[in-house]
Amino acid sequence: MIRFVQDANCIDYTPSADVAAGEVVVQGSLIGITKTDIGAGKLGAVHLEGVYDVPKDSATVFAAGGAVYYDNSKKLATTTSGSILLGHAAQAAVSGGAVVRVVLNK
Description:
The chain has strands spanning 10-13, 24-27, 30-34, 44-47, 51-55, 67-71, 76-78, 84-89, 99-104. It contains no helices and nine strands. It has a five-stranded antiparallel beta sheet, with no helix packed on it. Strands 1-4-3-2 form a four-stranded antiparallel beta sheet, with no helix packed on it. By secondary structure, the chain is mostly beta strands. The mean pLDDT is 94.
């Protein structure tokens, strides 16, 4: 029998190390962002929906509506499709800018 557990805008998450608010959390091909600090071993939430300003390399350019990937090792939004899909650019992000505005998981 299928049973409803929770809405999918966020999921429960218990990290093994402290996670600060605004950090990207990658679990396999599932990606989300924390809104609040979560202590190691403590239950918190990772948000799977919303619009976030995500750091990017200043030389990287995104077109509005273009795919935004996340390089977990550099902790930056990227156009490289080999990284995990974060979402789509809510607006264009030009060279020289520090962030791209991303519609998460859309």
